[in-house]
Amino acid sequence: MPINKVVSADEAIARIRPGDVIATTGFVQSCIPESLHAALEKRFVETGAPRDLTLIMCAGAGDSKGLGTGRLHHEGLLKRVIAANFGRMPKVAVAAQEDKIQGYNLPQGVISKLYRSCASGSPGLFTKVGLHTYVDPRLGGGKVNSVTKEDLVRLVEVEGKEWLFYKATPINVALIRATSADSLGNLSMEKEALTLDVLAQAMAAHNNGGVVIAQVERLVADGSIKPKDVKVPGILVDCVVVAETSEMHRMNYGVMYDPALAGEVRVTVDNLPTMKLDERKIIARRASFELPPNGVINLGVGAPDGVANVANEEKVTPYLVMTTEAGAVGGVLAGGSSFGSSANAHSILDQNQMFDFYHGGGLALTCLGMAECDSMGNVNTSKFGGRLNGCGGFIDISQNARAVVFAGTFTAGGLEVAIEDGKLKIVKEGRARKFVNQVEQVTFSGKYAAQKSQPVIYVTERCVFQLTDHGLELIEVAPGIDIERDILPHMAFKPHIHNPIPMNPAIFREGPMDLLSDLLNQKLGERMSYDAERNVLSVDLSAWSVRKKSDITDLQKAIAEACEKAGRRVNTLINQDRCRIAEDLYDAYADMVAYLSKTYYARTARYATSTLTRQKLQDALRRRGLQTRVFESAKDAAASLEEATAAE
């Protein structure tokens, strides 16, 4: 007999049984099966069933005001929630905080990939994501309250290394969403902004003997969807529900439909609006100096999203590939209610595939927000100020990006600043400290990052900190800011201070900063000067930053060109005062020095006033069997070079 899987929302939801485990799709405000959530809420309010459900979800899926999964707050409906984000369903978060339901706050990428574990019959997922954060069993195991007893995360050792094992929870019901369906249940997503995890969720529920319910916008004739356009095959789908109204199937809560976000058309994208020069732009501008040309990056919400505006203003966007954890690759990343999607995207990956890329180290840089930070560089974004917000993809992204920039104002709550004559003035200090003795919850472990030599900086409007083996070091201060007046009194701890440099003055002036030439090292040659009579090549690397491997390549090329122009082996005097080398690049930098020493240098003397810089550079050079002494002053370095030359 012909198969017709099209039913009403009420009929589909009636198949959910008490105690079922439900996985639902959606990312922030996009791709949410609103009709299904509404029907589940209606059935429970009217009948009191189904009760004691477990809800599994990745990113928040709602408007924070009661839509999406926020509809599921009614007492008795949920027994347990496993989610990366609670902020989009505040009443559910409150229920968890009041011990009315069990709750787990796990990393978004882990949950996303656990759908695949469920689909394949695997018991769970091995990963390093979450080590040394509140998800680690030694720090709570991701449990959000005292009534949550079962351990879903275990610490294990494999070949002498620590891993976390996340237990997969079998899924009974998948609530998914697509654009079109035929009567057989084949689904296509041509008008959706993202594909998320709908295939993995459907497979997980189906293979567990559960029910897959798909909300769609329209029905199409059987066989009219091209095979490669079928995102979820009908063999996985039990019920097809056509949204009752277009309002219940919006692209997101703020946009009915945008063909550019769906990838159906490519549009001429107007330039992003120029940001006014305030604290938010200062932070975004300073963070932009860390951008890796030709690298893949991820930007968080809040202060970090201003980096995209600055990149556009400075004409560096063509040199970057921006991504979102939701699966968008390239294009112009959307904000607001469309966050997670992209206009003119190069491609859209499933969310679990994007997290494969992130977990494997595919990101060159991420710029993320911070709610709290302590002396060891730990950051909290998941639980603070009495609110259970959740980690989202923060842990997945921050632990695995090659370099991390945390960005945010120095204090919170009423901060007012002014910029006068290129100097920053604090007009009114924020009410709340962000730099605290100890973060309420460890969402990012500074100690673990330092152990891995992960480059991490913390950018505020008035200063910049760097993560070191010993905690936070103050490395840059804004013009007009006094350390004793504007920084230390508003921190709960004193950071390490070793001769910090001024923040780039261009950040505090109107007009372009010439960011592109800095990122591409186009003016490195201006840092070289050769004295033919003394045969001394002076290399001024003061206040220069080695942020990525290409910086080392560019520096090697510039020095080699200067040496070849001299026509003989040269004595080299190198000023490394206040030169910042990323933690994971010291060995690569030493390799460059070894090559130049073998090929071009007669002898070398270098200097830096920072004890920490001297020690790290000496250690790296020693590992390559090179001259290890780094002098404290230019005078001592120059004298050493002259003595060696005279002794010949």
Q: Please provide the count of β strands.
A: 39
Q: What is the straight-line distance between the termini?
A: 99 Å
Query: What ranges have pLDDT less than 50 throughout 5 or more consecutive residues?
Result: none
Q: What is the average per-residue confidence, as pLDDT, rounded to a whole number?
A: 95
Strand order of the largest sheet: 15-14-20-25-30-31-32-33
Count of helical regions: 17
Biggest beta sheet attributes: 8 strands, mixed
Helix/strand structural class: alpha/beta
Radius of gyration in whole Å, from Cα? 28 Å
Q: State which percent range the strand residues make up.
A: 15-25%
Spatial shape: elongated
Helix content: 25-40%
Q: What does this molecule look like?
A:
Helices cover 25% and strands 24% of the residues. The strands form twelve sheets. It has an eight-stranded mixed beta sheet with strand order 15-14-20-25-30-31-32-33. It has 648 residues and is α/β, with parallel strands linked by helices.
